[in-house]
User: Fold this.
Amino acid sequence: MLLSGSINIAQILGMALVLLVAMTVHEWAHNYVGWRMGDPVPAQTGRLTLNPLVHIYWPGWLMWVLVGFGILGSAPISEYRMRDRRWGYLAAVAAGPVSNLVLAVIVAVLYRLNLWEVDFARRGDILPSFNVIMTLMFQFNVLLFIFNLIPLFPFDGWHILRKLLPPSQAAVLERYQNETMYIFLFLIALSFLNINVIGQIITPPMNFLFQVLLGI
Assistant:
């Protein structure tokens, strides 16, 4: 897994830029596909744009940059306004994490073409280099793809699972929606006690995608 040994100003600035791009594309994808599935609200609220000022929840973005967790944005889509409540909503929700995977694949193709190399900001660096930005762009888009597929509310993975399940089983999942959110909050609390269960869950698939896409 690609990890940097230390956090410095250059890396913080690089992460801020990468998260801005990654989450803008993520939220735009939710809105665009939701609109294509029949929900008029994304267009009515001006969400069919790649302008980050429209999509990003700035306090959550700052939290992600500084502490590694936060609510980065939201999309005003609803299954009740779509032509197909099940498959239309599934497509709109899945579009977010899939967009992050697409960004990671694009960055990986550039890596395979030898247009950048894996690098991290070093102690004392103030501005991130192109290689640092591309490294973080790949790493965090893979992270956001996998992280958002966690099947706990309110993540995209929970909504995806709800729409993939038969109606009777989906109803059971909906009944325990709050409990799944409490499980996630408990796991977050454990991470602050150096018990990183979430990290142990997402690291294997991240390593797999690093190997498949970058060959490292």
